[in-house]
Amino acid sequence: MANLVSSSIGSRWSLKGTTALVTGGTRGIGHAVVEELAEFGATVYTCSRNQKELNKCINEWKGKGFSVYGSTCDASSSFQRDELIRQVASTFNGKLNILVGYFFSIYLNTFMFSTHVHIYF
């Protein structure tokens, strides 16, 4: 991926000015997706159940010059899912362009049909 964004090809793929929510972004594929989106210029918000792991990843990304924010969230808790959406809406001033929802696939029915979830975008 080295310096792709600064090349002419990379400029066509620039995500500068876009916002993204990547759930489960501190490990595995989620971690790689956060990093790729940030490399292309997106401002990314991610979440994890583990605050220590989240802090470590955010510090690593900020050290690379990426614009990444995050909070803890346990997807099995409707209250925490609601709070995640509120935090993302606040951070991005209501603008969300990209959603990569890894944990939502596990809790899809709970999330999509919960009467406690309010979308603020």
Q: What does this 3D model show about the protein?
A:
The chain has 121 residues and is of the alpha/beta class. It has one domain (11-113): NAD(P)-binding Rossmann-like Domain (Rossmann fold). Helix content is 45%, strand content 17%. It contains 6 helices and 4 strands. The chain has helices at 8-12, 28-39, 51-63, 78-91, 102-106, 108-113, and strands at 19-23, 43-48, 68-72, 98-101. It has a 4-stranded parallel beta sheet, with helices on both faces. α2 (28-39) links the parallel β1 (19-23) and β2. It is globular and about 40 Å long.
Q: What Rg is obtained from the alpha carbons, in whole angstroms?
A: 14 Å
> Any idea what the CATH architecture is?
3-Layer(aba) Sandwich
Task: Sketch the topology as an H/E string, one letter per element.
Answer: HEHEHEHEHH
Distance between the termini: 31 Å
What coarse outline follows from CA principal-axis ratios?
globular
Q: How many domains make up the coordinates?
A: 1
CATH class: Alpha Beta
Q: What is the strand arrangement across the widest sheet? A: 3-2-1-4
Compute the average pLDDT: 82
> Helix proportion of residues, in percent?
40-55%
Main pleated-sheet profile: 4 strands, parallel
How many beta-strand segments? 4
Portion of residues in beta strands equals: 15-25%
* CATH homologous superfamily placement: NAD(P)-binding Rossmann-like Domain
Keywords: Membrane, NADP, Oxidoreductase, Transmembrane, Transmembrane helix
Transmembrane segments: 96-119
Family: Belongs to the short-chain dehydrogenases/reductases (SDR) family. SDR65C subfamily.
GO molecular function, one term: oxidoreductase activity
